[in-house]
Amino acid sequence: MHGSATPLSASAASAWLLVLLCAVSGAYCLLRARRTDRRARGMAAGEAVMGFGMAAMAVPSGTGPWGPQILLAVCCGASVHALWLLRGGVHHAHHLVGTLAMAYMALSMAAGHAHGRAAGLPVVTGALLLYYAGYVLLGGARLVTAGGGALPVAVGGGAGTGSAGELVRACRLAMGTGMLAMLLTM
């Protein structure tokens, strides 16, 4: 009642929708981590951290003066976890790319906090944009096709056929799209 009568701007509304999308994806991955076997639990827990980290990064009001440093520490820890998962096979490389991209964005946020905006290196940002654009297009094509495509899906506990596998793919697609959107703002 005492607040401003101006409506929520379109950019703030889309940022809050991205926060919601990433948080719901993170929550689903966390629930999946509780229900899966031990081998798949690490991957699902890592994806949950990614979802919640992306939700925190997408908050339109910012994360405060210590937020970028905290996000950087969490993302670096997730990167170490992703390196540990790589011992199980190269199919975990996407998780490593994602955690390193999150660490890169958190570092850019920390460096840009004094300047009022996050700005990274154009070459790194461009390479990540190309990677995630390809990932989103391929993931969308896999989700739309009836058989999920002929390429193997790097997933533990839920990569099978049926609605559970499709929901896992949809969550990954949502998080990939969110990462692409956040990279576009850099």
Written overview of the protein:
This protein is an all-alpha fold and 186 residues long. The protein has one domain (10-184). Helices cover 70% and strands 0% of the residues. It has 6 helices and no strands. It has helices at residues 10-35, 38-58, 67-85, 93-112, 122-144, 163-184. α2 (38-58) runs antiparallel to α3 and α5 (122-144) runs antiparallel to α6.
Cα-atom Rg, whole angstroms?
17 Å
The portion of residues assigned to helices is over 70%
DSSP strand content: under 5%
Element string (H = helix, E = strand):
HHHHHH
Q: Please indicate the count of domains.
A: 1
In short:
By secondary structure, the chain is mostly helical. The chain contains six helices and no strands.
List the helices and strands and how they pair.
Layout: H1 10-35, H2 38-58, H3 67-85, H4 93-112, H5 122-144, H6 163-184
Helix pairs in contact: 1-2, 1-6, 2-3, 2-4, 2-6, 3-4, 5-6
Short descriptors:
disordered N terminus, globular, 186 residues, 0% strand, mainly alpha
